[in-house]
Design a protein that fits this description.
Length: 335
């Protein structure tokens, strides 16, 4: 693996290099000539975190970075250093400053050799409960997967040679959307990725219609739509994407296809319920055009069959947030 701060394709890289060259040639401090310094001896990137032990376990045990020492009670700070692939260090500290993950484009990029390795590592992280997200930069969705660490800092697992990835993706069948027909038992495992209560899933598994995302002969994702008792309103009841395909835009494509088809069929409004503790799902829902509607308190308890306790992103699972989407304009809202 190696680390980079470059997040563009080859053409963009050349443009960035030209731009940096032009900036370096500009006069600095009124001196009238360019200046540079080539005596740097090391580089370290530092971030504050809430729980140093939790962050240490995440980067050491899940990402495989090697610790390189640390310190305790240094003017009110504790810290740990990690060796970054290719040189440099990543530092995490706890102290008086709260974490600030920045924007969607503030990234730590870890490179690996092949697209298969990216998907394998991604599947392992998802199975460990690490939150994945779609990147606003299509480049990372094509050549990698984006994850959130315990404090919300963004990490991209990407392939080091995009040219190889392009050839590999040409060999992979495109994803197509089709309505499911027949028994749903074969796709029940997909439903179980999004539903923790067996009793609840037994009740609604066969309701409504199910839109499938299919790559070749493999179902890689699904979205279930169930009419409600309110005229014109349909519910997005259950949706999931296979762990190895998450972060590649399939979830967004399912929502786009579902909203367009529902709008064409005459539905005026779509609602969806998700856990208040699931920050990733709330973020995704709002990025595809849903807005907050209401809250059901204590919806995810042992009474309707949910395991207790359930913790998501360090938050106890209890309340359900309802979101709504106007289907009169079925275009996805980018935020």
């Amino acid at each position: 693996m190696s680390v980079t701060v470059n997040n563009t394709d080859d053409r963009q890289t050349r443009r960035d290099m030209n731009r940096r060259s032009a900036q370096m040639a500009m006069p600095m401090h009124g001196a009238g000539r360019s200046h540079s310094f080539d005596g740097w001896t090391a580089v370290r990137v530092a971030h504050p975190v809430r729980d140093l032990a939790r962050s240490t376990a995440f980067y050491r045990d899940l990402l495989g970075l090697r610790p390189r020492g640390g310190f305790e009670d240094h003017d009110g700070y504790d810290g740990v250093f990690f060796e970054l692939p290719g040189g440099g260090e990543l530092e995490f500290t706890t102290g008086p400053v709260e974490p600030g993950p920045g924007t969607d484009e503030d990234l730590l990029v870890l490179y690996t050799g092949t697209g298969d390795e990216v998907r394998a590592i991604g599947a392992q992280l998802v199975s460990a409960g690490v939150q994945t997200m779609e990147s606003p930069n299509p480049y990372w969705n094509r050549y990698g997967q984006t994850f959130l660490d315990p404090d919300g800092y963004r990490i991209v697992i990407a392939q080091a040679s995009p040219q190889d990835t392009q050839a590999e993706q040409h060999d992979r069948p495109p994803v197509e959307m089709h309505w499911h027909e027949g028994s749903r038992e074969a796709i029940r495992p997909l439903f179980e990725l999004a539903e923790d209560s067996k009793a609840q899933l037994d009740e609604y598994l066969d309701q409504g219609r199910v839109l499938l995302a299919i790559r070749g002969s493999t179902v890689v994702g699904h979205l279930q739509l169930v009419p409600t008792t309110r005229p014109g309103r349909i519910e997005l009841k259950n949706m999931a994407v296979l762990p190895e395909e998450q972060g590649s835009g399939i979830g967004r494509s399912l929502v786009v296809a579902a909203t367009l088809r529902c709008a064409t069929d005459g539905w005026s409004e779509m609602v969806a319920g998700t856990a208040a503790a699931d920050i990733g799902n709330l973020r995704f829902s709002q990025r595809v055009g849903f807005g907050m509607l209401s809250i059901d308190r204590d919806a995810f308890t042992a009474m309707p069959g949910y395991p207790d306790p359930v913790v998501i992103d360090g938050i106890a699972l209890r309340d359900r947030v309802w979101l709504e989407r106007d289907l009169h304009d079925a275009r996805v809202v980018e935020r």
